[in-house]
Structure formats: structure tokens, C-alpha cells
Amino acid sequence: MRAQHLITYPRNLHPGAWWLWALGLAAAASRTQNPVPLLLILVVTGFVVAARKSDAPWAKSYGAFLKLALIIIAIRIVFQAVLSSGSQGPTVLVTLPELPVPGSTGIKLGGVISLEAVLRAFYEGLQLATILCCVGAANSLGSARRLLRSVPGALYEVGVACVIALTFAPQLVTDAARVRSAHRLRGHSSRGFGSLKRLAMPVLEGALERSVELAAAMDSRGYGRTTDETRVSRRLTGALVFGGLLGICIGVYGLLSGTSVSWMGLPMLVAGCLLGAVGMSVGGRRTGRTKYRPDPWAAPEWLVTGCGLAAAVTMFVSVETDPTSLFLVSVTAVPPVPLLACAGILLCLLPAVLAPPLPRSTATKATGAAELVGVAR
Amino acid sequence: MIRFDHVSLTYADALKSRAPVLRDVNLSIPEGELCLVIGRTGSGKTTLLRAINGLVPHFSGGTLSGRVVVNGRDTKDHRPRDLADVVGFVGQDPLSGFVTDTVEDELAYGMESLGLPPDVMRRRVEETLDLLGLAELRNRPLTDLSAGQQQRVAIGSVLTTHPRVLVLDEPTSALDPLAAEEVLATMQRLVHDLGLTVVLAEHRLERVVQYADRVVLVPGDGRPVRDGPPTSIMQDSPIAPPVVELGRVVGWRPLPLSVRDARRRADPVRAQLAGLEAPARPSAHGAAGNEAEALSPVALTEQLVAGYNNVPVLKGISTSLRPGEVVALMGRNGSGKSTLLKTLVGMKRPTSGQIRVDGRAPATLRPSQLLRHVGLVPQVPADLLYAHTVALECEQADRDAAVSAGTTLGIFERLSPDVPAGQHPRDLSEGQRLTLALAIILAARPALVLLDEPTRGLDYTAKHRLVEILHDLAREGRCVVLATHDVELVAEVASRVLVIADGELVADGPTADIVVSSPAFAPQVAKILSPQRWLTPTDVATALAEVTEVTQL
Amino acid sequence: MKATHLIPLRGRSSLALGTVSVIGLAAFGWPFLTDPGSALDSSHAGDAPLLFVAILPLLAAIVLAELTSGEMDAKSVAMLGMLSAVGGALRALGPGTAGLEPSFAIIVVGGRVFGRGFGFVLGALTIFSGALITGGVGPWLPFQMMAAGWLGFFAGCLPRATGRMEILWLAGYASISALLFGLVMNLWFWPFASYGPETSFVPGDPFAANLFRYGVFYLTTSLIWDLGRAVISLLVIGLAGSALLRALRRASRRAAFDAPVVFER
């Protein structure tokens, strides 16, 4: 068995597998507002991120997303409990002094704050927060930059442009710092709006000149050398893609309009999406371009994706077969525990061990020395 | 391998003149040669190199008459991307040519575009890493590497496609001498071991002319391009390294190209020059020419410690800089030269110790006050320029320095005549940009003028102009400090040399004392004529002229 | 002055752009387009926003692929990448400045100098690379990409003008479109933000009532940010617009995008 299939062999998991896992959990979270499975999903994502996150700077994004999620819940509670009079219920928690608000829009400032309003805001916010945390986990674990290496051929130019943008953005920041410190040499202080223009122009002009140099280097090294697709395959891709777009159009129209012809809604949408996706992956296939050491998709990737899929599937099945366990009878009732869905979610803890451990990088803090050399040069 | 048949090139751009950049070039470079292309800035060297690759005219637009054939492929029918497996092109700034993040991916990029199978790619990446000594850097991000390492990665990234021709446009211009030696040694190895044809454009010929099998001189202005063996082209080339100039002054035939060749013939010359003294460099004096001792120093440092966060770069520098002298600051990369300059300008606060410029601590001066006391031309002079014409830039400098209108433009025109005032500053040549930055700094008449690596990318003509400008500044009574690696420049212009190593001052004295016996800092003439203390061919020429005068009397 | 069209809009790419824009408008504005009695009505109203979040990435990918695939040479790709780097770095400056979007000036000027198609792709990729740099790829991203793409597209559609008229056009366009960007992005977020029945989307209600509620929601939440963004865009283009245009046009000349290549014997 090749080393990549072993879950103990240290390497980076294909980022697509992490994204699919996270999207499975997010799909599961989108079906319910029952706090039990939602909190479970939060715990699962937090645990897996802590177990498998790397040292790269973007791995901290889970924390940022979590903070954003908590802020959303807090804002929602504030708006619904404090500012909205329509969502209050019978059980009063506290009564604040009320400020009169002109007009009759139903907004109040202060006044009665009820338990029902707080709980309802919390549960609704929790769903959104959980979805955000799943996306944050995907960001932390599956770096979108590495995903750029695996784009389909149709998006090759976009991928190259993004790689260029990511490569040069830090250099632009360094240039800006250097230009800013040079302001002093001309007698300007580095404050004020005028200094922004003095900062922006050299950096921008330098960037534009560099882009021409870069294009010359790319051209010299064979960019765009591969043969373009044949007419037939272009027509085929076009047919698939535009057929897909048409399907999506009809599907969206069907969903939004009042007519209830069953095939015009969701099924058409799904079919359109599938056609479009197939068209994208088939099209733009360039003969003659190869990939150097692409990220492998081996057994651990399948397992991790499978866990995410299991969570989504068990949740969907629970919604169909056992809806009472997923929906709250009333806001203040004790939430029920849906066993099947929770089992599926707990399965998603497995990637913490199924995903291979991260390789220990041998090139450690050479950045310290390089900083000295680069700066003192 | 490379053949130019009656090639004339004209750019379509309205900015460049309608006259052809290259006229009727006939050139034939056989396989396995190292061919050196020399010429002044703007003479058309870059156009010639880019024509080999097809970048001119396919990429830049323009008209090509005649034929350029590389390894049997005519550039008329083959675009640069079609020639990627035959010609590898490396530009001046390696960082601008990098498409990916890490060393390994960069080496593989060219092969991906060519569609090579993955196992071939893997093998070639490993071979190239070994060939260029990059094996332990394979996973490093490209921005973390030093300039020399980046240049080697750039060369490696075009070598992986196994081209037959390697074209390099000023590969060592941004490198310090050690890194430049590494890159040139690598190229020697490629030519001799792999049989590549290497075509190389360079300004600093000292390091490379001895390795060249053929020299192509591009005089510019559409005059005919000459090529031939180095000794014959160097006879009357306007661009020549100091060893060749010395050979011309002394009358050696055939001309020596390296220090070793010259030294073997140097005994008679040493005998002739015995007992003579080299003319003095401008040393410390006031504007009226009074002696150094009586003058107060322009800048003074005492036990200066400065650096970053908790890492001191300067560890106790004590020195004084007097008016009228030109001081060269030398040392390897990372030793603290730039940090010292930045502390003198107040861009860095000293951690401890004293620093005074014109009696004030520079870090406490507001920028508008700073201009009158000290000015620094940074490593990248374009950092100072942000207007879109030279005239606007000068007007802004007049306002900043609170001097009468037209001062800066006047200074600039004196330093660099024949530059239209409506030109965009970034369209100027390197030397002209440097003089524009210098003119802006000089508008406020500072007593201390600092330059950080001014000769990067300058050709010999521009360097000579710079030397004259610096002599004039010193004669006016200012103090000029240059941080540089260029030992030839130091030999020509500096009266005093400070050597910084590991944050401390290890040498401080007159130029001749410091550089003559040092293997790292000695100019070519000093190496040839040591133990006598001669620094430049001009000195030797003046002394020999005196000798002949004396003998004629 | 004749504009360089780095990404020409031919039949196929225009069709793709048009179709995706129509679906995109539905994705943003579905609360106002839902007929009573449709599938997305009361019972499934919670699903609708998530449905559109799911399909919009595919749509964004399709339109970007159709616009760029096979059309761009190394110079255009490098210019696109570099301008996205500038815009992305500006977006990554910090959460405070990101709300005020200094990168819009780059998108507008880029669309103006290099054409409509380029403007669309530049807008989308600026947002995308900003997200990649900060590590924050969220469900809002495809929506922001579409909106910024429209921003760049319409910047390329502004009428021919030179000198101060051009700056006036661009500054006015930038401020209005910054406001519209905020309006549209807020519209996207509105169904997620059920802050009580006074300001949130009530599926099944008549159009006017929902519109009123959206108005209240907009005034209380995002108007300040949007006005700030509009003012910043106006200031940046007003003060630095001519310099930006000049720099991009000079780069366009130096890159020789359309320069003729002639071989003589």
C-alpha cells in the first residue's frame, strides 16, 4: 500500500477533503435550530481544528470566525430582546427603563426583556454561528491557497492571477514600508492624507513595472504554450455550461414563482448545477500542461470526506423520519436530543485521527536571520 | 547556435525615437561560448538580448528586419513561449520573475508549461538543486532568500527545461561581490561542464571579462555592433575594466584581462613607478580649504548602539565625520552599513550611545528641519520620486526645502544635462534617477550627504559622472558618506574608508592604507601593482606622464 | 483616448456574464422576487439564503472561466494579478479599513483603463485575493465577488471623457456604486438577520411591507458604513484619480498591449 494511504504517514491532507468535511457539517447545521446538535457541531469543529491545525498564519482564522459568530449571536440578542417589541413573550426576565421612540414602527429602546425573546434570538443566531464556525474550520484546516493548485483547467488563468496576487501582496507591503520611511528624507512627515498619495504612487508604479517584467519572464518560460482545445471540445463545453446555466435559471424561476410545477423548482436547479459543474471540469482541459507533485487524493481524504457526508446524510434522514426530535415545540421547552443526527455529528470527530499528522517542517526560523540580512542590506 | 543576419530593430512606441535601436547587426555565436555583451545604458544591449529570445518584437512590439535564428529556429515563426525549451532568459531582478512561492515549485514551473511527465520533472528538479547548490533551500519561500540565492534559483528555474542557450541580463548588478562571484562561477561551470551557450550583459566587467570567449560591443545610437575576442575588442572599447585601462596606459600588448595576467608583466612598470606618489584624494577641509584639524566634525557618534527589537546591529560605533572628506563605508551584507546611515538620518533611534549631526540628535529633528543638516539617497532612489514629470518633482523639492523656485532643476541639469524636464522620472535611466534623487537632496544644502549603494546598475560613464559630482561636493566643504561594495568606486573617490564588521568598526583610515593590502577591498590596480600603493589607472597615467616629463627635461 | 480592452467581451462570454448576472440579481433580491405560494415561501424561507449561498460559487466560477479562458496572454494575466495584489493588500489592511473599501478606487480605475470585461474580473479577483490573504473565505465571498465585479464592469461602461470630466464621472460613479454595493450586500445579509418582526424579512407578506422593513433595517444597520464608504471612494478618486489613471495608462503603454509586431525582410 502506498505511503499516502496510511493515516499515520505525515503529510498535508488535500484541502478539498477538509472543505468537503466542513461543508457536510454546515449542511447538517442548516437543517435545524435545535441547540443540541448545533452545539455538538461547534465542539466537534473546535476539537478537530485544535488537533490538526498547522502553524501557518491563516490557521488562526478559526478563532476569527468564532469571534465573529459570537458577535452575531450577541447582536441578535441585543436587537431582539432590547430593541424589538414584537418578539417578546410572557416570561419577563428584567424590565429596563424605556426610552420613547417616535413613530409606531414597533421599535422600542429598553422596556421589557423576556426570556422567550432572548432564547429565540440565541437559537436562531446559533444556527448561523455554527455554519460560520464550520466555514472557519475549513479555512483553518484546508488552506485555500493550496486549493489554488488544484483548480480545473477552465480556471487556469484565474488561478495564475490569484497566485501572482498572493505572491506579490506581501512584497507590496514591504515596499510600502520602505517608501514610508523614505518620506522623512524629503522632509515630509508620514502623516496626513497627502502622505498617502506620496506612498501610493511609488508603490503602484513599482508594482505595474514589475508586472511587465513578470509577464516577460512568464512568456519566456513557456506560459500559454499548450495547445488550445479543438473546436469540437469547445462546442461541447459550451453546450454543457450553457445548458447548466439554463437549468439553473429555470430552477430559480421555478422556486421563486408561484407556479407549483414540481420539476421546475429544485430538481431543475440541481440538474443545472450538475451540468455546469461537469462542463467546467471537462472544459478548458489543456493538452500539454502537467502538474508537478499534485496533492494526492488517497484513502485518508476519502475517509474524511465520508465523515462529513455522513453527518449531512444522517441529519437529512432525521429531518424526514423523526422531525419531532429536531424541532422545538416552544422556545422555552427543554430541547430534545436527536440520536441519529448526533451520532452522525460525532462521527465527524474521527478526522482528528484519520487525517494524517502534519509534517514537522525542517526549515524552521530561518526567517529571523533572513530578516536581518534583508533589512540591513 | 545563434545567428543574427542583417538585423535592425525599431520600437513602435512613440516614446522611443523612430530611429532603429539596432542597425544591421551581423553576429554569429557558436555553441559552447560565453559571450559578453557590453555597452552603455540605453545603447541597446537589452534589446539585443531580448531579440535572441523573441521577446523583441513579439512581446514588446516593433519592427524586426533581417533574421534571428537560434538553434535552427527563426524567431519570426517562433514566439518566446515556443523557444522556451531552447533559450532560457533570466532578467535583472530575479524577484520580479518568480511566479510561485517556494524554490521547488519555481524550478518546476517551466517544465509544467512544457508538459513534461511528472517523473522527469522530479528528476530534473533534484539535479538542478544539486547543480546550483540549492538542495537545503528547497522548501524555503523565495522572499526569504538572499539576493545571490534568488539569482541562482532564477537561473535554475530556466535550466530545468534543458535549454541550449542561456541569456542573462545583468545578473550580478544587485549582488555584493561574494554573491556575484558565486553566480559567475556557476555560469563558468555550466559553460564548461554542460556545454551551454551563455550570452551575458554586464556593466561591471572586472569580474567577468576574463571568462568571456567573445565580446560584443553595442555602441548605441544605431552605430554598428562589433564583436570579436576580448583582447581585440578591449583595445579601443570605450567601456573597459580597470585592468584593461591600466594595460592601455602602460602599453601592454596583448591586453591582460585578469589580475593574474597583468601581474605577470607588472615588474617593469613597478620599477618605473618606484618612489612616486599617487595624487591625493580630497581630504578633510573646510569650504575655504583650511586644514582638517581646526574644523569641527559634521557628525559625531560615540559608542552608538542601534538595531531592531532586541537584536543590536551596531555594537558601539565611535567615529567622527569631518567636512570636505569623502568617506566610504564598507563591509559585508548585514554588517550594519545601512543601519548606520539610517541612524545618521534619524530613521532609526539609537538604543544607546550618542549621535550628533551638526550638533543635534538626528532622531529628534523634524523632517523639515532634517533636510538642512543631512540628506540620504536610499538604495532605491525611486522611493523618493512620486511626481509624474521631472519638472514637477523639482518644484515639489523646492517647496519642501524652502528654496527659490528652479533651484533643484538647476542642480539636476548641472548633474545630468540633456534630460527633458517633461519626462517621467521612472523613464529615466538608473544614473539619471540617482542624480535626480541627489539633486532633490542637495536642494536644501545639507552639510552631510549620504548615499546607500549608489553604483548599483550604473555603467562606467555614469560612475565617472558620479565621481566628479562627489568630488565637487567635497570641494564645497560638505561631508559625503558612501555605503558601497564597489571597490573601484572607493578607489577613485574616497579619501577615507570605514570598515564595519559584525556591528563594530574594524578599520578607519585613509583609503590607501586600508584597501591596498586587503584581499577583499583592494581595487584591481592595487592588486596588480602591490606592494606599491596605486589605486586607479588614472593615478598611474598621471605618474607616468610626470616621469616622461622629467626624463624629457 | 481609445481604451485597451484586455478582456474583450465576445458573444459567448457576454451571454455567460448576462445570464449569471440575472441569476445573481435573483440571488441577492429573492426576498422581493418571491411570489406568494412559491416553494421558497414561508415553510422553506430559511433554506432560500443557504440555497443561493450554495449555487453562487459555481456561478462565479463559470462566469470567470468563460471570461478568461483562452483569452488572456501573459501580460494581461500579470496585470490582473498585480492589480488584484494591490487591491487585496488594501483590503487586508485591517477590519476597520476593509469596511471602507479603499480598494474600490483600484477596481474603478482598472475597469476604466482596461475595459469592462477586465473590470469585472478585477473586481471579483480583488475580493477573492483579499479573502485569501486574510484567510477568511466565508459564505459572503461569492456575493461580494459578484457585486465588486459589477462595480468594475460598469466602470468600464462610463462614457468617453478626458481630463476633469473624467475624474468627475469616475468620482461620482465610485461614490454611488459604493453606496449601492453596501445596499446590495446588506440585502444579501437581510434574511439572515431576523432581529425581530419589525425589521426582518417576513416571507409571504406583500412587497411594500417587506420593502419598508428592509428600509428600516438598512437605516439602522448599515447606512453609516455605506455613507463612509461612499465618501472615502469619492475622496480617493477625487484627490488621487488623475494620478492613478496616469499610472495605469503609462503601464499600459509600456506593456505594449496592442503594439503591432512587424517582420520585414
Structural description of this entry:
The complex is a heterotrimer of chains A (377), B (553) and C (265). Chain A is mostly helical and 377 residues long. Helix content of chain A is 62%, strand content 4%. In chain A, strands 1-2 form a two-stranded antiparallel sheet. The two termini of chain A are 50 Å apart. Chain A is built from 13 helices and two strands. The longest helix of chain A is centred in the middle third of the chain and has 28 residues, at 193-220. Chain A folds into three domains: 1-144 and 298-361, no CATH class; 153-221; 244-283. By secondary structure, chain B is an alpha/beta fold. In chain B, 36% of the residues lie in helices and 20% in strands. In chain B, helix 13 (390-401) packs across helix 14, helix 13 packs parallel to helix 15 (430-442) and helix 14 (407-415) packs antiparallel against helix 15. Chain C has helices spanning 11-33, 47-68, 74-91, 95-100, 103-114, 116-134, 141-155, 163-189, 207-221, 223-255; one strand spanning 261-264. Chain C is globular and about 75 Å long. Chains in contact: A-B, A-C, B-C. Strand 4 of chain B pairs parallel with strand 1 (261-264) of chain C, so a sheet runs across the interface.
